[in-house]
């Protein structure tokens, strides 16, 4: 297998300035709906990139759980690696790779912690076993074996077998407030269509086409 020979043409669609919404949230909502309608696997999956105290980037995939005019929301253990990195540097990059549509969206912004009310509301909407898993997993920390993890899960499940599972003190959410968003549509001969929205001081958005 020669890696340099693995390639394909991108011919599904094009992207022009006249068809773009005036703000990136509205444009993202259009594309997200199309990704859902196309029945893509995990259309809300996004790569979250953060940076540690020595400048080492790290990435992981999480699910987008809320979206409004403020930004993109996800939830996580606040003692996890990503949360520790966000506490030191709240600059974040998100990436939505919608390969089957030959599209991607890249979001640059700042992470802000959500209120306990917002976090609790979402946590109580999760399946009970997902709530229990949040209690059972010391996210990002070493564990000796999967059996140890499953034993902890069973213990927590038994503890909260009756009634609601309470919100862990170490569980929260972040809203990524964007200041720059790029929309990428694959094009023939690698002449892709790329448009970037950049937030201006007055709150409006400047839209520019980028070279592929």
UniProtKB/TrEMBL annotation:
Keywords: Flavoprotein, FMN, Oxidoreductase, Pyridoxine biosynthesis. InterPro entries: Pyridox_Oxase, Pyridox_Oxase_CS, Pyridox_Oxase_N, Pyridoxamine_oxidase_dimer_C, Split_barrel_FMN-bd. Binds 1 FMN per subunit. It catalyses: pyridoxine 5'-phosphate + O2 = pyridoxal 5'-phosphate + H2O2; pyridoxamine 5'-phosphate + O2 + H2O = pyridoxal 5'-phosphate + H2O2 + NH4(+). GO terms for biological process: pyridoxine biosynthetic process. Its cofactor is FMN. It is an enzyme of class 1 (oxidoreductase). It comes from the Bacteria. Residues 32-158 form the Pyridoxamine 5'-phosphate oxidase N-terminal domain. FMN binds at residues 60-65, 75-76, 81-82, 104, 139-140, 184, 194. NCBIfam families: pdxH, PRK05679.1. This is Pyridoxine/pyridoxamine 5'-phosphate oxidase. It comes from Pseudoalteromonas denitrificans DSM 6059.
């Amino acid at each position: 297998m020669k890696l340099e020979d693995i390639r394909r043409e991108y011919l599904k669609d094009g992207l022009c300035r006249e068809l773009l919404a005036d703000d990136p949230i509205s444009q993202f909502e259009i594309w997200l709906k199309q990704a859902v309608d196309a029945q893509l696997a995990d259309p809300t999956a996004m790569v979250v990139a953060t940076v540690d105290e020595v400048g080492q980037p790290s990435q992981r995939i999480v699910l987008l759980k809320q979206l409004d005019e403020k930004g993109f929301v996800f939830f996580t253990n606040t003692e996890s690696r990503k949360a520790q990195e966000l506490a030191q540097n709240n600059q974040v990059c998100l990436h939505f790779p919608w390969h089957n549509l030959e599209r991607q969206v890249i979001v640059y912004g700042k992470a802000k912690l959500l209120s306990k009310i917002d976090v609790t509301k979402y946590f109580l909407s999760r399946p009970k076993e997902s709530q229990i898993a949040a209690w059972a997993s010391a996210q990002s920390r070493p564990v000796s074996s999967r059996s140890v993890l499953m034993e902890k899960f069973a213990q927590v499940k038994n503890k909260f077998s009756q009634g609601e599972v309470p919100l862990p003190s170490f569980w929260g959410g972040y809203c990524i407030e964007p200041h720059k968003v790029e929309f990428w549509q694959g094009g023939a001969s690698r002449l892709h269509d790329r448009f970037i929205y950049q937030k201006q001081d007055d709150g409006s958005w400047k839209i520019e086409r980028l070279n592929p």
